[in-house]
Amino acid sequence: MLSSTAKNLYWMGRYLQRAKSTARLIEATQRAALQSRGEEAAGVAAIFGMEDEFRQSQRQSGRLASLIDFLVLDENNPSSIVNSIGAARRNAREERNNITVDVWESLNGLWLELSGRLRGNRKTLDRGALIESVKKQAVMIFGAAQVTLLRDEANNFLQLGAFLERADNTGRILDVKFHLLRPDGDPNAEGLDYFAWSELLACVGAVRTYRRIYRSSLHPMKVAELMMLRRDVPRSVHHCLWMVDLNMRELAETYGTRGEADRLAGELHARLRYVRIDQVFDIGLAKFLGTLRSDIGTLSDEIGRQFLLD
Amino acid sequence: MAAKAFDEMNSGMDGSVRLPYRGVADWLASTSPEHVAATRHEVDQFYRRHGITFGAYGATDGHETTIPFDIIPRVIAWDEWDYLQKGLVQRVRTLNAFLADAYGKREICRAGIIPEEQVLMNAEFVAMAQGLDLPGGVHAHIAGIDLVRVGEKDFYVLEDNVRTPSGVSYVLENREVMMRLAPELFAAMRVLPVANYTDELLATLRSVSYSDDAEPNVVLLTPGHYNSAYFEHAYLADEMGIELVKGSDLFVDEGRVYMRTPRGPQRVDVIYRRVDDAFLDPLAMRPDSYLGVAGLLGALRAGRVNIVNALGNGVADDKSTYTYVPEMVRFYLGEEPILQNVPTWCCDRSDDYKYVLEHLSELVVKEVHGSGGKGMLVGPTSSKAEIEEFSGLLKARPDNYIAQPTLALSTCPTFVSQGVAPRHVDLRPFVLSGRKITIVPGGLTRVALKEGSLVVNSSQGGGTKDTWVLAPDAPSAGSQTASQSGDE
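^ Those are the sequences you sent over. The predicted structure of the assembly is below.
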């Protein structure tokens, strides 16, 4: 297999997951905005590390609606949903002989649908339906990959991309929103905005999961534990890094070589697996997540170096 | 308009069906129009589902077009094929001998048969390809020779293609489709298989490696998915089980070519390239090319990698060199040419030029380096204004044009909107030259779908047909019409 094939599949996984995370985040934020108060936009922009870009963009008025357009439709925003799906499709198109017809057709179908919606009048474009569609079909594309792709190195790279992106997304959402709700970082402080905390869970689709696992009312420390450390929650940082490590091990077995990326993937997995949530808060959640996210970035770079993806 | 054309099916003695087509004619007569319509729909679905598309230039909306496929096969009897095959082998051996000579000592120029400037001043001549000792002495490993038929016994070579001829994926896919659609007809007619083409191609590519590895690493170099033949590139790479690479996947280090893989660099021994000469190596050829590999020609010259087809093959297949091929056969092989050339006037010769100018309305005029059916004039079907305009072009640059008589290309029954009607066809067999020469029986039959049109190029509204070469022991193997056999 060529490095360019590995690279295309890796980025296909990342972009598709990015579009899916963004869709879910917007949906949760919208719901929260309807139920509570005004200024949500800045917080969401912060999750994407795009506060400056957003504030500078022409149409900006600080309102949620314009932020949503920025995140969903904006052609100048490389991470907008439309651009992410377009990029994932470009990666897939170049590797049509390395993916199954099912994966290609479901991804191409989503892209054709988005293009169709965008050809119409922007004023009457149904943003909600578009976001819903991305969310649903992204799940189906990953499903198609799960049940039809050969379990070979190509699949490992697709999974690596998707899980690294997801680990980063969850870490990012938790980091920014926790800080907004508890600027002092104290999980045990008095008073709790129920809607705000359940919105945070909704961003990773885990409101019901929380109830199933803890069978208790919302508590910031448990919310953080669920999103970060629960191995059985498929969007938790721990679960994602576990999968990253697993795919790295399979590649190492296939190629018979190991490098810095393998070490780092193993170390990150172990870090999330063996740390306790009270230890995290002793260190400070913001600090812990800051280091973690920077290490995830380093891992992505190392993967690029080790497998000649650059 | 030219005289009535020879019809592949119906030009038997006294207008009867020619013997090789007996099975096809019966099949047509016994199949209802509804069934045919349903079958044609099925064909279209098949092609779309399998993504067999052509002409993806600028197609960013995910919709690509397919080349029309006609379900009535073109049939060639064994004795006809046997004759064509011998002629093709002779012609391709000659072209390879000429290319080795043109980039070597140029004996043929010294012998006064071809003027040296015909080689050296040719726009397709690549000076850097001189003096190479290529494995097996082969330059044109894959040749597509365009043949036309004008009578029972009359075949002509219309054009040699020894740069990067395309179309073979249609030969293979058309056959798959026909076997699905008409298995009973297929079995009754004893058609020779073509599916071994990709095996033969891989064997040919491996046989011209410089390295003595038992399994040299062969890759297919494509310009990428914006190229109109990208489907074919991906298809062939897939079928051969080799990597489909772009220039950016390869690099040269210490005179060797490698491909980038997650495992680390892997050495490349043979490159089947579908990228034009000018774009192969930005250091040696066009510096603005992103499609090639820097240092590739250095690796070739060092004998570390072989490039298929060789560089500079255009000196052998342009339309002015074409006129010398019969002489080349005599010079290199000491044989008489089996396949004939179409008589050709070269407008850089003053007598020819005068004749062409006076007879534009009867002739086909083409650019010397043209391809794809563009930039040409078909005199008999052109308006006065078109001829006037073309004569302006010709006067401005006589050396850029050649002219040929308008041939009455043979016709083959074809489904068109009004039913079954004769349409003009040509034939492009693919000849593989490595340590030995291989031709899979048949080739690509292209058909001009417009009534009366002689232009079969897919970019100009042409379609394709499956080409059936009948086995020597087939029930209707002979080409001759059976004498008055009555109804069967």
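The two ends of chain B are 37 Å apart (CA to CA). The CA atoms of residues 237 and 244 of chain B lie 6 Å apart.

Shout if you want it in another format.
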